[in-house]
Design goal:
eight-stranded mixed beta sheet; Immunoglobulin-like; mainly beta; elongated; 4 domains; about 450 residues
């Protein structure tokens, strides 16, 4: 029974996408003309749905499914005679909807908005929050909605408030806050309101924004975290409530990749970062009603880790009956410098991985020739990458069949054989001639004597 290479993933709460590898000629037993996908909800297994596809399809998306529901799925290939044995059932759960944060509150000042919220009801599905703000149209007197620029800020999962600064007094703003994870963004909580007007104040000492912290130091803690420490400003001009940390990949111009963290102490452990990535970090002081400027940036890189994705674009090409050319591309997320590649291959796909034959190539090599194979045999290959931390996942298995050996005549060898045979025949003929002459001479002498 052939084991289908079936991959299942959800791209929205109501769909499931299936991808599969075409059957090789060894397993298809004829031309594949169609595929059939069977699926049902796990709590309603007696109700099964089926979809038939053309034989040249390798992916399909099931739509209008129920969110947060476990489905079971399988696939079967068919020829003109009928369908073969289907694959084993695979279970997959559709994505859960992320609800909007609750109790969104915004306290407005002349040039700031202090945004606070409570977690989403299903906050366990949230890996962080996003906050966006823009100038909004109000009573037809503001800018057109399409001309206002939206600013988006990424915040960590534990964030419950954020201070927006540098806003225009007496201006209508729209603020949105929503949770997100690796698969999708959740629903947003929305607030609309105005910043305060500027009123004349009695003469007196003016309140200036706090100065930035000093002696900022960053130290890599792991492949996904960095310790950031600082000291209070050398001169305290206002009461500091907390500090805001800005973190972004070095050199980025994409505002969506900039994250902000809040700390009430003089240090913070920044988590959820990407391995082997260079970051720029800055800190600012926040007063009761104003925020100071950010400090100068410091830079630090997270530590390397194992590759989180396998090598890409694995390709196999049979060169002759005893050798195969294997080529690949580096992983999409190497998480460090690739030190080596491991090429595993076998003739028996059911063998445990440690029994597969193993070849190794340096990290700057992207192809190799595997020799000493048997002709007319199916071989299964997969490739994995390693950093100094350790190996990453292997690629999907691909197969290739070596051709049967062909025997070609060696012209030089055949010519030598023919020449040798001819010389041998000439020698035999000469020997026969000499033998005949000697025999005739003895006969004449015998007659003379008589």
């Amino acid at each position: 029974v052939y084991k289908y290479q079936l991959s299942v993933v959800s791209t929205s709460p109501t769909d499931i996408r299936l991808t599969w590898q075409p059957l090789s000629s060894q397993h298809s037993r004829g031309a594949i003309t169609r595929y059939r996908i069977d699926y049902s909800a796990l709590d309603q297994m007696d109700i099964m749905f089926s979809v038939e596809l053309r034989g040249n399809e390798t992916q399909f998306t099931l739509r209008e499914l129920r969110p947060n529901q476990v489905y079971r799925l399988r696939i079967a290939a068919g020829t003109s005679v009928g369908f073969g044995v289907p694959s084993e059932w695979v279970q997959h759960q559709t994505i859960v909807l992320i609800f909007a944060p609750s109790e969104l509150k915004v306290r407005s000042r002349v040039s700031t908005l202090n945004v606070t919220w409570q977690p989403s009801p299903n906050h366990t599905m949230v890996s962080g929050y996003k906050l966006s703000y823009r100038e909004a149209e109000a009573d037809g007197t503001s800018k057109q909605e399409g001309s206002s620029k939206t600013h988006t800020i990424r915040l960590r999962k534990k964030a419950r408030h954020h201070l927006l600064t540098g806003l225009v007094p007496d201006r209508q703003y729209e603020v949105r806050v929503w949770g997100f994870n690796r698969q999708k963004d959740g629903e947003a909580a929305v607030w609309k309101g105005r910043t305060d007007k500027i009123y004349s104040r009695p003469s007196g000492p003016s309140s200036s924004p706090p100065l930035p912290p000093s002696s900022i130091q960053a130290t890599a803690n792991s492949s996904t975290s960095i310790w950031l420490r600082w000291e209070k400003p050398r001169f305290i001009n206002v009461r500091i409530i907390n500090y805001t940390v800005r973190c972004s990949p070095a050199g980025t111009t994409n505002a969506s990749l900039v994250s902000y963290y809040t700390s009430s102490s003089l240090e913070i452990l920044l988590g959820g970062l990407k391995p082997f990535t260079h970051y720029e970090l800055a800190v600012r002081s926040n007063g009761e009603d104003s925020a100071g400027p950010f400090s100068g940036t410091v830079e630090e890189s997270t530590l390397p880790d194992r590759p989180s994705t396998p090598p890409q674009e694995l390709q196999l090409s049979a060169l002759d009956s005893s050798s195969v050319l294997v080529s690949w591309r580096p992983p999409l997320e190497p998480n460090g410098i690739i030190c080596s590649y491991s090429i595993l291959f076998t003739v028996n796909l059911s063998e445990p991985e440690h029994q597969w034959r193993n070849l190794s190539e340096d990290g700057d090599i992207f192809s190799t020739e595997v020799n000493g194979l048997s002709g007319g045999t199916w071989y299964f290959f997969k490739v994995g990458a390693s950093t100094k931390v350790g190996p990453g996942p292997f690629s999907s298995v691909m197969d290739v069949q070596t051709p049967l050996p062909t025997y070609e005549l060696d012209v030089h060898a055949v010519t030598g054989i023919i020449v040798g045979v001819c010389l041998g025949l000439i020698c035999i003929l000469l020997c026969m001639c000499f033998s005949f002459r000697n025999s005739k001479s003895r006969s004449v002498l015998h007659m003379v004597i008589i």
